[in-house]
Model the fold of this input.
Amino acid sequence: MRPRAPYRLDHVHVLVSDRELAAAWYELHLGLQRREVSADPYGPLVLSGDGGGTALALFTSKVKPDPNRVVAFAVGAEELLAFAVDLDERPMQAPDGARLTAADVVDHGDALSYYFKDPDGNAYELACYEVDAARLGLRGLAIRAQRAGR
Done:
């Protein structure tokens, strides 16, 4: 018997050094909200950005993350632009360790993406498929930054 498809992604396990500190970072930088917290300090602290449809389950661990595993979030053009603007006030780390900037967007043709790491080194992608609107908005940000001398 073949499995029924399509499946819906439920959650991704993310290993962090301190789940409370990590949760605060994800709340601040990605707007994820707490859904549930295990009483077991090594159990999951679950965060979601869509009311629990999909989630990150943070687990305290001494194991370092796999740098080749990237978790991707899909966002609309408006959310991608808000993320880019917030980089001035909420610094994030690019995959190479440098500070991520709005200009670090990667244009894949059919998607625009930002790649970044959390403080524990877990790798993420913010992918936007509303490319025309996102490109237009990012051009506007670049022009404003240029005029401001940044």
About this structure: The chain has three helices and eight strands.
